[in-house]
Design goal:
Helix content is 39%, strand content 21%. It is built from eleven helices and twelve strands. The chain has a five-stranded mixed beta sheet with strand order 4-3-5-12-6. Strands 9-8-10-7-11 form a five-stranded mixed beta sheet. The protein has a two-stranded antiparallel ribbon with strand order 1-2. Strand 1 and strand 2 form a beta hairpin. Helix 1 packs across helix 3 and helix 2 packs across helix 3.
């Protein structure tokens, strides 16, 4: 396909048409008259050789191809918007800008709060918006990164994209303080027989994959989408859970839990800021990466101790 022959304004029209499913409303959304939007729809239909919008009774519905294009068009629009908003220079003290970062609650608690503090002091016009990491991040990394400014995630889960290392951590086990029979270190048999609390797709974590390599399959009793819920689901029960040592130390005063060391040499955790290659030379994203690396390097040393 020769992209030079395409009118990129049609991306704007296509997104509005597929989301509004109404020619008049789509035109109002992008500032085009009804005849102009109808002409854009006709051009799009010729290009895709598909109706895209099919009249059913008194309204339009998306065709099968229209449904496929709806999400793809939204991603393409976001990418084009970011591409053409790239800057050669960026002055954080003067700019007004919002960075959208995808992160787990763990990354926000351990790193994001300090990043937000530094940004508040050094760049008052910069806004940070954190959104929860979706369970589909491993399968749709490229799509996710194309629509955001960065993803906070440890090495070993995704690969193939630019990453800025931030800080180190390690995986430890949590148990209730009154857990019967739990000493200072579990045995492999303990990990196989005790019930677990897990976070989303815990098997994506290198430490849990290591359990599989050791022949240990966790008996999951509860699964949550928030790391900070793990201690609450463990306290007062026989359940165990795998959690980052830095977060365990922060949450120790919140719930009656304690840390137990794994019965094997756990895979270390190195948190990173991942980005799409299109942002590599953008001045705003370069500043974000440099600031994030500086904040990560300034975090207290993570010894993993928990009272």
């Amino acid at each position: 396909m020769n992209l030079a022959r395409l009118d990129l304004n049609l991306v704007v029209a296509l997104r509005a048409l597929l989301e509004e499913r109404n020619v008049t409303r789509a035109g109002e959304r992008v500032g085009l008259s009804q005849p102009a939007m109808s002409a854009a729809l006709a051009r799009l239909r010729r290009h895709f050789d598909d109706d895209l919008l099919a009249r059913v009774g008194g309204h339009y519905e998306l065709t099968a191809l229209g449904q496929v294009l709806r999400d793809r068009t939204s991603t393409a629009y976001d990418m084009l918007e970011r591409l053409f908003s790239s800057q050669a220079d960026f002055d954080p003290a003067r700019e007004s800008h919002e960075f959208r970062l995808v992160a787990s609650d763990y990354a926000v608690a351990v790193f994001g709060t300090e990043l937000a503090r530094v940004v508040h002091e050094e760049a008052p016009g910069i806004r940070l918006r954190f959104t929860q990491t979706p369970p589909t991040v491993v399968d749709g990394t490229a799509t996710l990164l194309s629509a955001t400014d960065g993803l906070l995630m440890p090495h070993g889960v995704i690969s193939g994209f630019p990453a800025t290392d931030l800080y180190d951590d390690r995986w430890v086990f949590l148990v209730s303080r009154d857990h019967p029979g739990a000493g200072d270190r579990f045995t492999r048999r303990d990990l196989a027989r005790l019930p677990w609390v897990t976070y989303q797709r815990t098997y994506d974590a290198p430490a849990v994959r290591q359990l599989g390599m050791l022949g240990i399959e966790p008996r999951v009793e509860v699964s949550v989408d928030n790391f900070q819920l793990l201690p609450l689901m463990i306290a007062g029960t026989r359940r165990i859970g795998l959690i980052q040592a830095r977060l365990a130390r922060m949450l120790a005063p919140v719930a009656a839990v304690r840390v137990v060391e794994p019965p094997y040499e756990a895979v270390p955790l190195r948190e990173a800021l991942w980005g799409h290659p299109v942002h590599t030379h953008d001045a705003a994203h370069s500043w974000l990466r440099e600031t994030a690396a500086r904040v990560g390097a300034g975090l207290p040393r993570g010894d993993g101790e928990c009272d």
